[in-house]
Amino acid sequence: MDDVRTAGRGIVAATAKIEARGVQVHYGTTHALKDVDVSILDHAVTAFIGPSGCGKSTFLRCLNRMNDTIASCRVTGKITLDGEDIYAPKVDPVQLRAKVGMVFQKPNPFPKSIYENVAYGPKIHGLTRNKGELDQIVEASLRKAALWAEVKDRLDSPGTGLSGGQQQRLCIARAIATGPEVLLMDEPCSALDPIATAQVEELIDELRSSFSVVIVTHSMQQAARVSQKTAFFHLGHLVEYGETAEIFTNPKDPRTEAYITGRIG
Fold it and tell me: CB–CB of 184/103 below 8 Å?
């Protein structure tokens, strides 16, 4: 499916990277997500917004099968990545998560060196043949995460010794080191100060040239700043999805307008 995305930086043709059709999620007897249909574009940032408990993080975790780790969770419907069903029996969730990386709300570097944090994924997935190739991946990932200049002289230092914003950028470097095609971010700035938040937001805008980026955020201002597409979730339903500027200035559904103007949420 072809689409066109607009950002303040021009109009670019884009295609759907992920397609979700009729997705339902149950946690035991709780019906958490109801009949979600959406197409997520390649080389664009898609923001999921909505009140707490509306299903946006639940849906994000469907996209790399993180919900598989919850015994009571059942996902039905169809989600495809480049046309391939990610819930097909032949799909290895571990390999899927190398393709669909994830960055969590709270920076969670491993208790290892900066170098080893980034090298971990390529090592376990067998992506390199020697130390030289691994060094190249570590440097390239840290450069993409806008962290290389700050840490290149202390790669053996603990990742946990970095500032909060640096730790989150390290986690982004770790996520992209396996060469993913999609990057999922679950409120990546909620634990950061305004300066670190601005650095991560700038990084997100740069990353969309290489990845399809999906971000869950409670900040409508952040969604407006970083995304080209926005999806509004409410009470387990995907209420509205479209161009970010359109969602915020001319929403079609009264529930979207009520949320954006602060009447619900």
Answer: yes
Alpha-carbon distance 133 to 129, whole Å? 7
- As a whole number of Å, the CA-based R_g of the chain is 18
CB atoms within 10 A of CB 263: 10
Write out residues in the chain with pLDDT < 50, as ranges.
1-12
pLDDT at 264: 75
Residue 107 lies in a domain: yes
pLDDT tens digits for range 79-101: 999 999 999 999 999 999 999 99
What pLDDT, in 10s, does the model give residues 174-217?
A: 999 999 999 999 999 999 999 999 999 999 999 999 999 999 99
Residue 29: exposure state from Cβ atoms within 10 A (0-12, 13-18, ≥19):
exposed
Residue 13 tokens read as: 């043709």
Report in angstroms the alpha-carbon separations of 72 from 34, 69, 88.
17, 9, 19
3-state secondary structure of 114: helix
Residue 101 · residue 176 · CB < 8 Å: yes
Residue 7 lies in a domain: no
**217-251 as b/e, with b when 16 or more CB fall inside 10 Å?**
bebbebbbbbbbbbbbbbebbbbbbebbeebbeeb
Closest CA to 87 of 150, 179, 175, 22: 22
Domain at 66, CATH number: 3.40.50.300
Q: How many domains, the chain?
A: 1
